[in-house]
Write a sequence for this structure.
């Protein structure tokens, strides 16, 4: 187990701070601890240019876990306009630990699309097609023609 400074904090990121995303440079001095996922108690809203985590839901959010210091956290707080736009909360991760992250309130994202998969990077991935595209009448007609 590695020791950490008393001012070190764990930060869960799920959107523009992820590796390869446009604000990732803000974490240049942070230590990547690895990929992480929350327990399925949250929601991820798509606001177009960035996502927002919501505290209530049934989705596991995919992201990355970093160790940061208070200086980096202060810079991120300013960037995320805490507490006006975002607020900092603790989330429970799938491994049973907790980390800080940035979240919005439900009323701030009312009417915005929810990402059912909880994955910001996967938001444009093609969805698997279901083979059962019809209802009971369509399926009955298919069976009738298959018998001929």
């Amino acid at each position: 187990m590695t020791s950490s400074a008393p001012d070190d904090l764990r930060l869960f990121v799920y959107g523009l701070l992820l590796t390869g995303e446009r604000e990732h440079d803000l974490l240049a001095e942070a230590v990547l601890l690895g990929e992480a996922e929350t327990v399925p108690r949250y929601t991820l809203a798509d606001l177009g240019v960035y996502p927002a985590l919501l505290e209530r839901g049934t989705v596991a959010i995919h992201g990355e876990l970093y160790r940061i210091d208070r200086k980096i956290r202060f810079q991120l707080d300013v960037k995320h306009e805490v507490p006006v736009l975002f607020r900092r909360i603790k989330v429970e991760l799938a491994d049973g630990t907790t980390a800080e992250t940035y979240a919005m309130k439900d009323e701030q994202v009312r009417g915005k699309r929810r990402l059912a998969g909880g994955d910001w990077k996967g938001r444009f991935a093609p969805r698997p097609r279901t083979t059962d595209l019809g209802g009971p009448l369509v399926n009955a007609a298919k069976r009738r023609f298959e018998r001929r």
About this structure: The chain is about 15% helix and 30% strand.
